[in-house]
Write a structure and sequence with these properties.
- This protein is mainly α and 171 residues long.
- The protein has one domain.
- Helices cover 43% and strands 5% of the residues.
- It has a three-stranded mixed sheet with strand order 1-3-2.
- Strand 2 and strand 3 form a beta hairpin.
- Helix 2 packs across helix 4, helix 4 runs antiparallel to helix 5 and helix 5 runs antiparallel to helix 6.
Length: 171
């Protein structure tokens, strides 16, 4: 089910079908994650992007994988070859979807609490800039909660707070 952007104000959607701002992208990812959590045929495993099981009716996804499964067009997702668990070499794309790859990798950074890496992946800040260092220390005053399949609310609350703060900063 494609994301309903009608509730968003002034959201710019790129040609890949996802928002251009990181804060809006996080909102989409959280919505997709919750859709996946509600589906008993989907296992949330933050170490696996998107993996179908042998039965083809069941699968595992992470935060970025939830977006692959729920929001992106099926034809586009089928054209992505996931070949590893690491962001830098997970995709075998021909260069057409570099922006999409950057967005999905940014979500992977976010789920690990690496906000500064997400901003760099999207070309929003440069390493060494004030915002880079500010977001390196984003979680220093707070506790970042990793995803726990039995208690996912603390993780989602951290990510929601991050989206609000990023939006305030224009990201």
């Amino acid at each position: 089910m494609p994301f309903d952007f009608s509730t968003f104000t002034e959201v710019k959607i790129d040609a890949d079908g996802l928002p251009s701002k990181l804060s809006d992208l996080i909102d989409v990812a959280l919505r997709d994650l919750e859709l996946c959590e509600a589906n008993p045929k989907i296992n949330i495993n933050m170490s696996v992007w998107y993996e179908k099981y042998h039965s083809k009716d069941y699968c595992s996804v992470c935060l970025a994988g939830a977006v692959l499964l729920q929001t992106l067009p099926k034809a586009l997702v089928e054209g992505i070859k996931l070949n590893d668990y690491w962001c830098s070499d997970i995709f075998e794309m021909d260069g057409k979807n570099q922006r999409l790859e950057a967005k999905l990798c940014a979500l992977d950074n976010i789920r690990m609490g690496e906000v500064h890496r997400a901003l760099v992946n999207l070309g929003l800040v440069e390493e060494g800039s004030d915002n880079f260092y500010r977001y390196i220390e984003y979680w220093s005053g707070d506790v970042f909660h990793m995803y726990d399949e039995y208690e996912s609310e603390p993780f989602k609350a951290c990510i929601r707070k991050l989206a609000v703060d990023l939006r305030k900063d224009g990201f």
